[in-house]
Amino acid sequence: MASVSKSSQPSKKGLFNKFLNVIETVGNKLPHPVTIFLLLAVAVIVISEIASRAGLAVNFYDAKYKTEKTVEAISLLNAEGLRYMINTATKNFTGFHPLGTVLVAMLGVGIAEGTGLINSALKKLVLSTPKRLITAVVVFAGVMSNIASDAGYVVLVPLGAIVFLSFKRHPLAGMAAAFAGVSGGFSANLLLGTLDPLLAGITNEALTAGGIELSILPTANMYFMMASTFLITFIGTYVTEKIVEPRLGEYKGEYKADDSMEVTEVEKKGLVAAGISLLIFVAVMIFLTLPENAALKVPEAENPLKQFIYNGLVPTIMLFFLVPGLVYGIVAGTIKNDKDVIKAMSKAMSGLGGYLVLCFFAAQFIKYFSYTNLGIILAVSGANFLKAIGFTGLPLILAFIVVAGFINLFIGSASAKWGIMAPVFIPMMYQLGFTPEFTQLAYRIGDSCTNIISPLMSYFAVIVVFAQKYDKDTGIGTLISTMLPYSIAFLLGWTALMIVWYLVGAPIGPDAFIHLAM
Predict the structure, then answer these.
(1) Which residue from 135, 360, 372, 476 could staple onto 48, CB 3.0 to 4.6 Å apart?
(2) Is residue 411 in a domain?
């Protein structure tokens, strides 16, 4: 049943495969991200005592306020520190910015997903595309699907295989193209999703931890990520048709496409109604935000629209999915009463149990980092060291992207990694003249590119199971060897785009730039 000839299969004894085996072995021995944050919090407590006793302190120039500052290490291993940890634990958790943003946005996404709107929209987009454009559309749909978090993995990846098979192309190539878009292009999109406010919230927490009175918007990387959507689509299409598909060869398996994946008439009616409701919603939001005296603008604010984006964008994202989701559900018959609506929301919330646990420990670690001043001391000391050896500017950013991509092989969660890295790198890059928006952008490039070759990525094993439906001999090594060309091409292409953007000095988002204004 296997469709790949023995001669085309990668050698299990190759050096590269041995390297991947080492990564898998080491990665499997890492504790859960929650445990990592707990251990980091304990480490901060111990290190803060050592640093305080050693009298660690740094002097630095605050570029924003143009003043000299001195900060000293503060210990948590004393009466005052103990009171802080006990008395602020609840506040640290409930005040953790990413917590509220994700919970609110997922209420709307839960409706859109629970009613079947997202599934039907993805199927309609892919299945109604001409044959010559099908690869590009599968990759593009994968990139766009990350708005709905896991929907792309469970719907679009198996759908990509079925679509390719219906066009008499290798189903594993279609699956690889979809997986590349969904996971490899995870940060790119034409629209704002739940990831944008999530990462921005962590960045803002890191700025606070670093003693920097500055905050960024969820739209911080919007321009760059919109351009990245087309780049990832082009690269993904090229790699699929020129590298992956020729390597797989002709599919000789017996599996046939299942017509059940077709969009039904009821689903079509639901999609039309949902589309109309979405247009009406967008028109209403434009009316409420863009006119001079729009109701959602804050009259006394220096930048009324920016104020709305910062405070009202997340509820808007929720409504963006909730309104068409409700309309679709009513027309398609997946919503019959208010109980169905609450059930869909509750299901979305129930899937965030692990995220809530993660947020509690991440919040404690970040707040401890802020209280002890270790983040500021590490950032300033690191920045001074990098300046001293001349490792600054673009080479530093390139190294940071590689580091983020490497760490991603071991810790799959984008928020978990950024929660660990942001408190160190955001203040450090700030001291070197880079905006937090740009540092976050560089992180997102590294974080996305290696998703598709990491056995520790939460959906990696699921993709292997999907692939075995068409080739029973498919294993982890098969999937990694298939996806590796995408990972390398995405990393090189995306980094090249970032370099061009860096040299041109163009904005990376609304009111978001590469260098700090001096």
Answers:
(1) 372
(2) yes
The residue type of 508 is I
The separation between CA 8 and the C-alpha centre of its own chain, rounded to angstroms, equals 33
Domain count, the chain: 1
Average pLDDT score over residue span 307-312: 72
Please indicate, yes or no, if residue 2 is contained in any of the structural domains.
no
Which alpha helices (DSSP H) does 432-455 contain, by range?
436-449
Read off the tokens for 86: 């006990």
- Summarised one tens digit per residue, pLDDT across range 298-307 is 776 666 666 6
| 47 in any annotated domain | yes
For the chain, what is the radius of gyration of the CA atoms?
A: 24
With a CB cutoff of 8 Å and minimum separation 6, the contacts of 452 are 179, 180, 183, 184, 483, 486, 487
| Domain extent for 372 | 8-504
Greatest distance between any 2 Cα atoms in the chain: 72
What CA–CA distance (Å, rounded) separates 368 from 478?
43
Residue at 468: amino acid letter: Q
DSSP string for 426-437: HHHHHHTTB-HH
User: What Å distances lie between residue 247 and 7, 243, 255, CA to CA?
Assistant: 10, 6, 20
Which of 365, 421, 364, 377 lies closest to 40 in space, CA to CA?
Answer: 365
The token pair at 206 is: 């890191």
pTM: 0.70
Cα–Cα distance for residue pair 289/98, rounded to 1 Å: 24
- Helices 97-114 & 338-350, crossing angle to 10 degrees? 130
Residues 120-159, buried b or exposed e (16+ Cβ, 10 A)? bbbbbbbbebeeeebbbbbbbbbbbbbbbbbbbbbbbbbb
Determine, yes or no, domain membership for 132: yes
Q: Kindly state the tokens that stand for 28.
A: 């499997």
Please give the DSSP secondary-structure letter assigned to residue 155. I
Contact (Cβ atoms closer than 8 angstroms) between residue 367 and residue 92 = yes
389: Cβ–Cβ under 8 A, 6 or more apart, which residues?
none
> How many other CB atoms are there within 10 angstroms of residue 260's CB atom?
7
